[in-house]
Structure formats: structure tokens, C-alpha cells
Write a structure and sequence with these properties.
about 5% helix; mainly beta; single chain
């Protein structure tokens, strides 16, 4: 008793109260009023306003399952921040999948005798994209038009007669889509006079040379440059509507006409077109979380205006009829995004899903710091997935992007419409982390960090200490999208302390038609960057590229690759202890590759190369371009014969082997075309099995077979050269 009494005497008179739990506000797609309770949920806007009155505790705004039709963005400003160490969280309710949608349904479809269906479009809506039961339709498109017919100048182009455009009912609703190297242009036809076409302004002027605003003085990727090879296709004309899954928007009649795919019933189909540009804008807010929310059917209006889409690089465009001289891309315009964060602090986007978008997924800009986009999914986007930072090399401190993170996201099938867009883009950022993302099926570069093209105003910037680590990047710079001069990882600018490590890169520019698709591309003044411990396979050109002498102290070490590359040319740059010319990945490399990406996954193992140990020969040798260069495991060295009838290259495997596949990599000159690949047991090729290739060999052309052979010969069927970077002979799979 005495001890108990003594204990009671020394016990505190009162116990500190536990911190209150979060205030929960409930939201539903049809919510109304201001209660925001589970029984009487409210709208997102009402919940935002209610959260502003809560003090001294966290706030959770829980969104019920369903589609939230956004007629305007949900805007969250400084007043919507967490206060006094607390956080405001916008999140899916347990088990719910809420989706913010900028789409509008198009109804009242009627069928025509030609099998097309047409619906009227309400005022204020310009259908640039169309989704039928969740599947993207394509704007009706025609064939390519070569520069010899569609000859582009600063003022327009020829070709209206040969293409049939001169006879179209409404040619001014159509656009020319032009791809030049890393750029993509979409400009609307403004007029037709005889054989001449003119285009909407300022789109055409901003796509042509001579404005002093289109990029560096050396730039040769404008529509009127020597790099121009023609129009990739014209699109959005009724005369082009000939394939299921295509549609046409007629602005004069305000109708959409669609040719259904097999199995689609337009009487019951759900047809959506993006209308609202931004679905959520976080402007100056801090200590805010957005998690588990879907973003779909957001629009991107600029390309449908007279501004058009004058692509510059990575999904940014040149806009405006006038402006300051700009050779470093300081005044280029980012695409519209479903979720935009401006000047945010400690904003976390997690577990979100971005799909069926007319523009980009997320933009972090205007001095956003300590903000993250993690464990989210991006798929079927017209532009890129994530844009971080801005294009001013020396911004004021409050406008500098710092310590942002893009990690453990899955990015697939982005850049669907604007094929110059990249998966993840960052401008002038410091301490950025791009970590363990999975990027797959992209038209151009995967991850792009840095800006400026070595222009004087950009040579010294805030870029520093960025980390591109543990990402899985596969099937990027795809041949069918015709965008060149990029890489799975692409950098620009001096950025001391930056590291590119632990990434798995497979099939970048694989099967390319040019020798300019890279694995890791240290472009334009890229300096002070370490490239270490990456696994890089099946690359269309160089596994690592640092071509510019003004790049400084870049170092590549401890990487694994199935080819080789010339030494880094930048001043003080080195390549050491790399494992090159592999035809099998060792266990250490496989372990690095398997850990890369948002989710662990087995990498694609290399196939053994029987030609590596063989003896190569050729019909003749031009200079020092000897036959053995095609079997040295290096796609950057070339063989070359003289130009002669039936020129050939061959390899003797040393014994008869069962061959399953031959890879033919065209040389630097891309000269090898129209040839037979012969597989024979006998040296005189009397028993040869022949596989014919029409047109140029790619990098590579793959030829599957199942043949017993000792000798493999590549022989022209006409006159010319055989020039090869690499020939691999793989055994048949067992």
C-alpha cells in the first residue's frame, strides 16, 4: 500500500493528449454541398475549400470510386498547403479508383453507306484525339510525299497536284506531319493555289529557318533545310479516311467521321474526345500529397491552333510570331500536362495513373523543389510522361528546380502523336534523382537531362549532381517513328557530380536506318558525368557517345555491352575497365539488369555468336576496311568491298553448325542493299540455302532460319559495295 501510494504520488497529474488524427473529407463524382462526410460527400472543389479551414492536423481528402468530369482544372494554391508541419493528402478511398477526366462523350452517331459513322460536335470542342471504348483512334492519314514532289521552302511547299490535295473538298482542315532527325512538325494547310501549299502561321515560319529563333546557328533540321526529305504524311482529310480505326474532324461542319474497327458497334460504343487541358494545377502549394488518382483524357490545344506544333526537341515547341533571339532553347514551350506543379515544395505524387492523354502526364516547373513523382503509371500519351524543370540556365534562386525525384514509375507507349517527345525530360535541374523507372516502347529518347546546345548563355548553368540510376529502358528510338540522333539516356550541358549508373538499356534504335541511335548519349557540352555499371545491349549505334570536343571530363567505367565504341572525345574524358564485345552477359551484369526498373524483371540474355571465332573474307577490300571488322564484336567498325558486280562478304565457321539466325548490320555508309544471304555446308556454295533481302540492310536486319551450314555469305544481286559493321551468326535454339 505504501509503495502504491508513493507511486501514485509521483505520477503526473495529467497525461499529454495524443495528436489528433487526420481530418477526413469525403468526395464523390456526384458530391454536393459542404458537409464532405461519408454520408454526404462533396465535390473536389468543396473539399478543397473545406480543407482550408482545418488547422493543427493533417487533412485527408478521400475520393470515392468513379469518373470526375473536369470542366476546368482543380487548382490548389498556397492556401491548400499543409500547415505547421502537417500534410494535406488527396487520395483514393480504400478500394476506389477515382479518375479525373477531361473527356467529353460524343453521341448521336449515324451510319453512311460507305460504312463510316458521323456525329455532330458541340461548340467549344475541337476533337484532336478520339478514343472508342478506351482505344485510341488515329487521324486519317495518307502516304509519304518525297521532297522531290513536296518541295518545302520558307513560305510553303509544292505537291498539291501530285498528292491530290488540290482536289480535296476541304484541304485547309488537313495537316502536314514532317519528321527531320530529332524534330517533329505538325502544321495545318492554310491555302492551295495551283500546285502550291501554304500553311498556318506562325507554325510554318517557326518550323523553317531564318527566324533566328529556331535553335543554334548550325541547326539543319528545319523544314526548308537539306535534311528535309519530305512529308511523312498528311492527315485529317476526308479523302484519307480508308482504314478501320481512323477518324476525321471537319471544323466547318463540326462533325467527326469514324471508320469502325472490326467488332465495334457505334450505336453502343463509348466515344470520348479530350477537351479540358489541365486536370489539376498545384500552384505555389507545399506539403501536399496526390496519391492513387487517375488522370485521363486531358487535351493539348496548341497543335490545333495556328501555332501548330513546331517541334524543337523532346516535345518542346517554338511558339509566337516574334520573340527574342534564342539559340539555346530558353523560350521554348513545354506541352500541356494533365497535372502541373508550379513552384511547389514537398509535393508528392504517388501511385497515380496517367492514360489516354492528348498531351503530357506531369509537369514540375517554375522552381518546384523537393517534389516527387513515384510509383505511377503512364501509358498512351500523345506527348511525354514527365517534364521536370525549365529552360533558363541561370534562374533566380526561387525559380531553380532542386532535389526533385522521379522514381519507380512505369512509362510505356508515350509520344504516340508527337514522336519527338521523350519519356522523362529535365531541363536545368540540380540534385535530381531519376531512379528505377521502367520505360518501354518510346519513339525517341527515354530519359533526357540537361539543355542548351553549348550556346554561350547556356555554358554555365545551375545543372549539377543529378542521378540517373537503376532504370530499365527498352525498345526506344523505334525505327517506325523516324526520329534520330538521340539515346536511351540523353544529356546536355555541364553538370558536375552527375552519375548515370546501374541502368539496363536494351534495344535503343535497334533495326535503325541510320547510325545515330545511342545507348547513353553525352551530347552538346555534356561534362563532368560518370557513366558506370550500366548494362547496354542491342544498340543501333554507340553504346556510349561523347562526340563533341567541348565535352569535359566524362568517364565511362565498369559497364557491360555487346559492342564497342570509339573513345570519348571530350577533353579529359576516359573509358576504362568496361566489359565490351560480349556475346553473353555474365552473372554480375544479369544481376544489375534484373534489379533495374520499377519492378524486378529478367533481362534479355544475348545469343552466342558463332561468327566471332570464324574466318572472314570478302571479294575485294577497299583500303583498310578488312573483312574481319564484321566479326570483331564492334558495330562501330566497318568492312567495305569495292563497287563491283556480285560483291560479297563471307565467314567460315570452321565446322558445320546448326544456324538459327543471322544478324546483318549495315555499315556506316548504309551501302549494302539488295543482297542474298547464303548458308552452305560446302565452300563452293553448291548446296546453299538462300535468303533474299530487298532494299538496304538495317542495323540490324534479322534473318531467321534453321540450316546446317559452315559458310555464311552476303552477296549483292547487282553491282555495288558490301559494307558491314557486324554480322552475327546465332546457333539454333535447343
Amino acid at each position: 500500500m505504501a509503495l502504491a501510494a508513493a507511486g501514485a504520488a509521483i505520477a503526473p497529474q495529467s497525461t499529454a493528449q495524443a495528436a489528433p488524427g487526420p481530418k477526413i473529407l469525403h468526395v464523390s463524382p456526384n458530391g454536393s454541398g459542404e458537409s464532405c462526410t461519408a454520408a454526404r460527400p462533396c465535390s473536389p472543389q468543396a473539399a478543397r475549400d473545406a480543407a482550408r479551414t482545418v488547422g493543427g492536423r493533417d487533412v485527408r481528402i478521400e475520393l470515392a470510386h468513379g469518373t470526375y468530369e473536369m470542366r476546368e482544372p482543380l487548382t490548389l494554391g498556397a492556401a491548400d498547403s499543409g500547415r505547421d508541419g502537417h500534410t494535406v493528402t488527396w487520395t483514393a478511398a480504400r478500394g476506389a479508383e477515382p479518375v479525373f477526366s477531361g473527356g467529353r462523350a460524343l453521341k448521336g452517331w449515324s451510319e453512311a453507306t460507305d460504312g463510316t459513322w458521323t456525329a455532330r460536335v458541340p461548340e467549344g470542342i475541337t476533337p484532336r484525339q478520339l478514343f472508342v471504348d478506351g482505344e485510341r483512334a488515329l487521324r486519317a492519314r495518307g502516304k509519304a510525299c518525297a521532297a522531290s514532289t513536296c518541295d518545302a521552302t520558307k513560305t510553303g511547299m509544292t505537291g498539291a497536284t501530285a498528292t491530290g490535295i488540290a482536289n480535296w473538298k476541304r484541304p485547309t482542315g488537313a495537316e502536314a506531319v514532317i519528321k527531320i532527325r530529332w524534330r517533329d512538325y505538325h502544321c495545318r494547310i492554310a491555302g492551295v493555289e495551283g500546285d502550291d501549299l501554304t500553311f498556318a502561321q506562325p507554325c510554318w515560319t517557326n518550323s523553317a529557318s531564318g527566324t533566328n529563333r529556331t535553335g543554334p546557328a548550325w541547326d539543319s533540321t528545319t523544314v526548308d533545310s537539306s535534311r528535309y526529305s519530305g512529308v511523312a504524311f498528311f492527315e485529317n482529310a476526308r479523302e484519307l479516311l480508308d482504314k478501320p480505326g481512323e477518324f476525321v474532324w471537319d471544323a466547318e461542319d463540326r462533325t467527326v467521321t469514324y471508320l469502325p474497327r472490326k467488332g465495334e458497334d457505334m450505336r453502343h460504343a463509348r466515344v470520348l474526345t479530350p477537351v479540358t487541358e489541365r486536370l489539376m494545377v498545384v500552384d505555389g502549394a507545399h506539403d501536399l500529397r496526390v496519391q492513387g488518382i487517375g488522370f485521363a483524357y486531358a487535351a493539348y490545344g496548341q497543335p490545333s491552333t495556328d501555332e501548330g506544333y513546331a517541334g524543337t526537341q523532346a516535345g518542346l515547341t517554338l511558339t509566337g510570331a516574334s520573340g527574342p533571339v534564342d539559340h539555346a532553347g530558353r523560350h521554348y514551350t513545354k506541352p500541356s500536362a494533365a497535372l502541373t506543379v508550379r513552384g511547389g515544395r514537398h509535393v508528392a505524387v504517388r501511385g497515380a495513373e496517367f492514360t489516354h492523354l492528348g498531351g503530357a502526364g506531369v509537369v514540375l516547373e517554375a522552381g518546384t523543389k523537393d517534389t516527387s513523382v513515384t510509383r505511377s503509371r503512364f501509358t498512351d500519351l500523345s506527348s511525354g510522361a514527365v517534364y521536370v524543370g525549365d529552360t533558363e540556365p541561370k534562374p533566380d534562386a526561387e525559380l531553380a528546380g532542386e532535389r526533385n525525384t522521379v522514381a519507380y514509375n512505369t512509362i510505356r507507349s508515350t509520344g504516340v502523336e508527337y514522336t519527338d517527345a521523350v519519356g522523362i525530360w529535365a531541363g536545368y535541374e540540380a540534385e535530381l534523382s531519376v531512379d528505377h523507372n521502367t520505360l518501354d516502347e518510346l519513339p525517341y529518347s527515354g530519359i533526357s537531362v540537361g539543355w542548351g546546345w553549348n550556346q554561350p548563355e547556356a555554358q554555365k548553368s545551375v545543372l549539377r549532381d543529378n542521378r540517373i540510376t537503376g532504370n530499365r529502358i527498352t525498345d526506344v528510338m523505334r525505327v517506325e517513328n523516324a526520329q534520330h540522333d538521340g539515346g536511351a539516356v540523353y544529356t546536355q550541358g555541364a553538370q558536375p557530380g552527375t552519375v548515370v549508373s546501374g541502368n539496363y538499356i536494351n534495344r535503343s534504335a535497334y533495326g535503325n536506318t541510320e547510325r545515330d541511335g545511342n545507348g547513353i548519349y553525352l551530347d552538346e557540352q555534356s561534362s563532368y558525368i560518370r557513366v558506370e555499371g550500366n548494362v547496354i545491349t542491342r544498340i543501333g549505334y554507340k553504346w556510349v557517345s561523347n562526340w563533341a570536343d567541348y565535352g569535359i571530363q566524362n568517364h565511362a567505367t565498369g559497364n557491360w555491352t555487346d559492342t564497342d565504341a570509339p573513345a570519348l572525345t571530350g577533353t579529359g574524358s576516359t573509358m576504362r575497365d568496361n566489359h565490351t564485345e560480349l556475346d553473353r552477359l555474365p552473372s554480375d551484369a544479369l544481376a544489375v539488369a534484373a534489379r533495374a526498373g520499377a519492378h524486378p524483371a529478367a533481362p534479355e540474355q544475348l545469343r552466342p555468336d558463332l561468327a566471332r571465332a570464324g574466318t572472314a573474307s570478302q571479294s575485294s577490300t577497299d583500303g583498310a576496311a578488312e573483312a574481319a571488322y564484321a566479326t570483331d564484336g564492334d558495330t562501330s567498325t566497318d568492312t567495305r568491298t569495292l563497287s563491283e558486280p556480285g560483291a560479297w562478304w563471307q565467314v567460315d565457321l570452321g565446322d558445320v553448325r546448326r544456324v538459327g539466325q543471322v544478324e546483318v548490320w549495315n555499315g556506316t555508309s548504309m551501302a549494302t542493299a539488295d543482297f542474298d544471304v547464303q548458308l552452305a555446308r560446302r565452300a563452293d556454295f553448291a548446296d546453299a540455302r538462300t535468303l533474299h533481302v530487298t532494299g538496304r540492310a538495317l542495323r540490324p536486319t534479322l534473318l531467321d532460319t534453321d540450316a546446317e551450314a559452315r559458310y555464311i555469305r552476303i552477296k549483292l544481286t547487282g553491282t555495288g559495295r558490301v559494307a558491314l559493321a557486324h554480322v552475327l551468326v546465332h546457333p539454333a535454339r535447343t
